[in-house]
């Protein structure tokens, strides 16, 4: 006896289509779609029928940039794989791609195995890994080939954080050359960390210690410069490039110029850069510490360039860079010295709703919402069409979304394991009602019915924009 679910009466939205259709799910996959009221749809029967009248039926979100349990700045991101993936499900995200970390002096294999162990049996939704390269050498370059074969097909390098994750231009070039050969996609944190460290030291020497100075020293021009340099290194290596958490208008311009030349260069931004600004970093007292992340929040006038980039496809993906630290006990490690505030914001639960608000506000179309939050991240990181769409054969990762429900975002009601919300008090229109992961209800009419261990590790193909 197969396990069948029928979702009736909703508006099915994918990156390509909007159609009033019923969705038949069988054994964890989408079996068929048919126009609502059609003869085919009328003939379907199922053990479970979900009424989606006046609702959107959309693919589960794919968040391609999260950091659960990440060690950083003498502490750890406050969400575990269990709490973080549960919160993701509440927010309509059904797949995360997290980052395994290579420690300096250690192998990629050891780092990856550590992250397999952290996540194994803990996740409420499906998950995959990128690999952070902290130590580029002959041995780790060879290991990149093995990881690609294993389904870890993207590698993140840092032009920031000297002494922690930083790679110099020679190391970056060598990793890019390896990626060009083995099909791996190089992801870049593009900020000139060497120059930023000078500005940090000078600011602290002047007594400028408050959180707002975090944004002032991490100059937009140093993001743009690093973005430009990364693009040129990728051209020399003949490699594709994916720039993470783009926040500055000048960096978007560098990506647009490269793409206008036909280069395989891609860019991601995050909700915090679209909805928050340096006004938040400058909140009185130590409140601004809640908003310390890197790249930093920018002055509000940068937001228009980011929205435009999403519309023109110079930016292709919105991920969260979810890396939460509690205000009390973690963020306050940096009282009196902004450079010691752990860098990161919570957001894995908020992304789909904030981007729906962008639809309501006229920044994006509904299909573009699904494209940047579901389909493109799945394609970019080798998960499509298993993830990111609703089509026969796809995993039945499905969200029933109420486009008219009004909610107020708050730490009181969110499910992330962090003591504040970056969007506290913000009213948005649209809310997740029910979520299926591989056909299993994990959120049922605003009640969590999932479990740790339901989520399975998902090996990935190479970037599907390069084939």
**Residue-averaged pLDDT:** 97
Largest sheet properties: 8 strands, mixed
Residue windows where pLDDT falls under 50 for at least 5 positions: none
- Ends distance: 39 Å
- Find the count of extended strands (DSSP E, 2+ residues): 18
Helical proportion?
A: 25-40%
User: What is the radius of gyration?
Assistant: 21 Å
Q: Work out the helix count.
A: 14
Q: Tell the overall outline.
A: globular
- Secondary structure category: alpha/beta
Question: What assembly state would you assign to the polypeptide chains in this entry?
Answer: single chain
The percentage of residues in β strands lies in: 15-25%
Q: How would you describe this protein?
A:
This protein is of the alpha/beta class and 467 residues long. Helices cover 31% and strands 23% of the residues. Strands 1, 2, 3, 4, 5, 16, 17 and 18 form an 8-stranded mixed sheet that branches. α5 crosses α8 and α8 runs parallel beside α9. The longest helix has 18 residues. It is globular.
Which helices and strands appear, and what pairs or packs with what?
Layout: E1 4-13, E2 18-26, E3 29-35, H1 39-43, E4 48-51, E5 56-59, E6 61-66, E7 71-72, E8 75-76, H2 81-90, E9 93-101, H3 108-119, E10 126-132, H4 138-150, E11 154-158, H5 169-182, E12 185-189, H6 193-205, H7 212-217, H8 220-237, E13 241-243, H9 249-260, E14 265-269, H10 271-275, H11 278-281, H12 303-312, E15 317-318, H13 351-360, H14 366-380, E16 398-408, E17 427-437, E18 440-443
